[in-house]
Amino acid sequence: MCGIVGYIGKKDAVEIVLKGLRKLEYRGYDSAGIAVVCDNLLHTRRSVGKLCNLTENIKKNPISSNIAIGHTRWATHGKPSENNAHPHTDATNSIVIVHNGIIENYADLKNQLKENLKEFKSQTDTEVIAHLIKKYYKNDLFDAVKRSLREIKGSYALAVICKDDPDTIICARQDAPLIIGIGQEENFIASDIPALLSYTKNMTFLEDGDIAKITKDKIIVVDKDGNEQNRQVKTIHWDPILAEKAGYKHFMLKEIFEQPRTIEDTLRGRVYPNEGKIYVEEVKLSKEDIKNISNIYVVACGTSYHAGLVSKIFFENFAKISTEVDIASEFRYRSPILNEKTLVIVISQSGETADTLAALRLAKSKNCQTLAVCNVVGSSISRETNHVVYTHCGVEIGVASTKAFTGQLAALYILALDFASKKESLPKEDIKKYLQELWEIPVKIGEFLKNVLEINKIAKLFDRKKDFLYLGRHINYPVALEGALKLKELSYIHAEGYAAGEMKHGPIALIDEAMPIVVVATDSTVYAKIISNIEEAKARGATIIAIASSNNNEISTKSEHVIYVPKTDEFVSPLMSVVPLQLLAYYISVNLGCDVDQPRNLAKSVTVE
Ligand code: AGP
């Protein structure tokens, strides 16, 4: 939540920071702002709403400098307004700060700064940091920030500049991501990799408690105890083109179409179907370790949680390990029974989701083995877990997750098969067969994506509906949940996902003629059961949109609309059946004129509780 970018060097810092913020707008878009030092004065520009408003503002009121910090906001404290927009300054307009996170003791700190109270201009938790730094500032910004942070409780990634020190950016992180990009006679900071990809591939990921002093030629990092640290520089190989729309109308559509490639990338080098071999080398668990796992907890949020629900079926059926799946924000406040024989798998596209990170820390504190399925290299979760399996999806910019979901499913599927192979819980021939089924999925999704306009025709028939139901069973029940989540977050239409067999225990009362029901009815062991559920819904007047396997000749007699997908084995079917649901939500949202890539109230990376 919230994106930060900073630049110091010889180039036009305003242009670089604005360009970087554009890449981070998915992190929040309630307001945006920028601050520069020019002629020993601070200049800030702030605008409510999307970044384009700030860009317009700067066109009308130009500023320029070789040093700048910028911010795109997802509001926590204080509604979206110009006064609450970052950057925030102290009372004398000497110190300016941008911040991502929550300062939990901001009210106490504000009270301690009583003499300045009347000078506070915003309702944010952030502004107090600017006043605090000013209090400690004695011609050494690094020192003033260090002293101030000792008094701060909460989470932060922040950047500070000062009118009297136009050659320095100070930044710090605690429970919120911050990256330093290393250039030639220039350096950068950002909340996330895409903001920097056009400028440098060499990046340092700050650790919790780190504070850094950045000039154009030098970076000094000290840890929470004040000791200087040489943090590793990583080379990031993501292609900057991935962060562009490449001719697609929206990032989300582009990311849906990327899925054949991103699944292939996640499998490449790990899966050899002809030999029935799997190599997940990042996981350093021995055969003995895997045999010793008594149970698995899979913990995640949102779409990643839905991938976790699917993985329960992989781990139980392939590896024969009892598996629980939990929402991270629930798991962390329960008292889950965890011990050193429990494997806790956290799933996170961003690797920064606050609740998932807290769940991981809880698991580690109970001596569990921990494993993350993660998309972002160097993210907090990927660094703190014992083992990490990366989904090689590249940057996902659309706030609604699509390619990350199918990448997670692919990674979890091979992980479960790898465990099965090491535990010998499945015959070798079965492992080979399952690998082959997964291997064929990218081509099948590619085939399906040739005819997506059919889905738009259906979308146009239903885009004025107020409520939708999504039904699925067994391995496709989580897909129904995911389809409903996509529709509600993108189009603001109320949608619920249910296990189809649960309908008659209550939700069936919702059904009437006005209710479209999307049913995942691909070939499976529970196909006959789901047909019965369709009949029950139709008997109450519902209109059915079925997702069915291409060989199904019967379903068109039972459903008003059918979206056919290539036939797959049941275990890999979620990777296929979710794609039409992503597209249905996409087209309905486009037809309604909603903001597909940046739906209201959301942010891509949820780094606050
Ligand atoms: C779904 O479209 C959302 N982007 C959201 O539910 C997301 O999956 C959730 O916030 C978890 O994010 P993560 O995978 O980065 O941890």
Structural features, described:
Helix 4 (127-136) packs across helix 5 (141-150), helix 9 (302-319) runs parallel beside helix 13 (403-423) and helix 9 (302-319) runs antiparallel to helix 17 (477-491). The protein has 609 residues and is of the alpha/beta class. The chain has three domains: 3-236, Aminohydrolase, N-terminal nucleophile (Ntn) domain (Glutamine Phosphoribosylpyrophosphate, subunit 1, domain 1, 4-Layer Sandwich); 243-448, Rossmann fold, CATH 3.40.50; 453-591, Rossmann fold (3-Layer(aba) Sandwich). Helix content is 34%, strand content 24%. 2-deoxy-2-amino glucitol-6-phosphate is lined by residues 301-304, 348-350, 353, 356, 399-401, 489, 605-606.
Keywords for this entry:
eight-stranded antiparallel beta sheet, 609 residues, 3 domains, alpha/beta, binds 2-deoxy-2-amino glucitol-6-phosphate, 19 helices, single chain, Glutamine Phosphoribosylpyrophosphate, subunit 1, domain 1, Rossmann fold, seven-stranded antiparallel beta sheet
Summarize it.
The protein is 34% helix and 24% strand.
Distance between the termini: 10 Å
* Oligomeric state of this protein: single chain
Q: What general form does the structure show?
A: globular
Gyration radius from CA atoms, angstroms: 25 Å
CATH top level label of the largest domain? Alpha Beta
Average pLDDT number: 93
User: What's the number of helices?
Assistant: 19
Ligands and ions found: 2-deoxy-2-amino glucitol-6-phosphate
Classify the helix fraction into a percent range. 25-40%
Domain count, please report it. Answer: 3
- Named CATH topology of the largest domain: Glutamine Phosphoribosylpyrophosphate, subunit 1, domain 1
Helix and strand content put the structural class at: alpha/beta
Residue stretches low in confidence (pLDDT < 50, at least 5 long) are none
| CATH architecture annotation of the largest domain | 4-Layer Sandwich
Q: What is the strand tally?
A: 27
